[in-house]
Amino acid sequence: MNPIRRALALGLAAATLAFGAQAQNRELTVASSATYAPFAFENKDKQIVGFDIDIINAIAKQQGLKIKVVNTPFTGIFGALNNGDVDLVISGVTINDKRKQSYDFTPPYFAARQLIALPKGSTVASLKDLAGKKIAVVSASTADDITSREFGKTSPNIRRFESTPLIISELAGGGVDAAMGDNGVIAYRVAQNPELKTLDDKSFPEEGFGIVVKKGDKALLDKLTAGLAAIRADGSYAAIYKKWFNKDPNAR
C-alpha cells in the first residue's frame, strides 16, 4: 500500500476506535421524576435519592457506566426519551403491552400493584364503588389507564395531576373522594397523613416496574439487564430493597 494511503487508513482507524471508546464511556442521562418517594425524591440537600436511584447507581457501578440523574416530571419522561434528551428512564414505570410497542424494558426490578387512598371514614370497598366519585390519578400512569377503562377516558370524575404528592394533597384537602397509584408510593404518602387509609382491591393485577430505553437500543438494554441480574445475584438488590421498604424483597 502507498505509504500515504497507509498512514491515512491507520489514522482513520484510530479515529474510529477513539470515537467508539468515547461513545462507550460517555455519560448517560437518566430521567426520574423526583416526586415519587420512596422511589425517587429530593432530600433536604436537593439531591435526588430513593430506591430507583440506588438501583440504577448499583447497576451503573456493576457495568462500569457513567450516569447523571435528571429530575423529569413523569408526564415528560417519554418525550425526553423520544427526543434524545435522556438515554434511559427509571421512574416507577409499569411494564405493559402498550408501552412495549414503543419502548424496550429490562426485566422487572420491582413488583407492584395499584393501591387506592381514601379518607379514614370512607366506606368504599373496591374500585367499582368509586363509580360517580371523584378520583385523582397521575396523568399517563397505570392508575390513569385503569380508571379510564373502568369509568371512561373522558369521565369528568377522573382528575389528572402531574405527581403523586399532588393527588394525595387533593385527597387530603377534600377535592376528590379517592386517589390511586402504585402501592409503594401511595402507602408511603398515606403513612404521612393520619386522616387517610389505603384500600387494596384484590382485582388489581400484579405489575412490574422496568427500566426504559428507546426501542431497539439493544446494547444499552443488554448492559442494564446484565447489571440488574448481577446485583440481584450478589445481594446488593436485597440490601437496597430492605433499606427503603424495611423488609426482604421476597416477603409478602
From TrEMBL:
Record has Signal as a keyword: yes
Domain of life: Bacteria
Chain ranges of the Solute-binding protein family 3/N-terminal domain: 27-248
First and last residue of the signal peptide: 1-23
Listed InterPro entries: Iontro_rcpt_C, Solute-binding_3/MltF_N
CDD domains noted in UniProt: PBP2_Arg_Lys_His
Protein name: Basic amino acid ABC transporter substrate-binding protein
